[in-house]
Input
Amino acid sequence: MAYSLQIVLDCLHPHDQADWWAQTMGWQVEATDADFILSMVKKGLATEDQTTLHKGSLVWKIGAAITAGDGAGAGQPRILFQLADTAKAGKNRVHWDVRLRGENKSEVREKLIARGATFLWEASQGPFSWLTMADPEGNEFCIN
Output
């Protein structure tokens, strides 16, 4: 049996990170249901301090997720951005590679920098080359 995959990234600002990564990947932030959240608070199954407003919408404070959208099919990868109480420290033990599908790496790098990313270094191995970047919270990723 094959399993589906969810990657979880601890971060200080999960909703901002989800927005940033959804735009970067061309994916979608999963919709939240404000009525459901309010009903959970009203029933005493959640508290108001477990919620927050993000871009005018009521959301769970603890996190937000992105996917490639409904067209990607069942079992698609999902990235969950989860609230952490400390900033990233040290090098990532896991990172992801963003495959550009023929786009110019240097042009994509400049677009990402304009949106808050940081260029870290360029590397290659044999015929393959990549740029290592960091997202707005310092999490490393590569573009290739």
About this structure: Helices lie at 14-25, 34-42, 105-114. The chain has a mean pLDDT of 94.
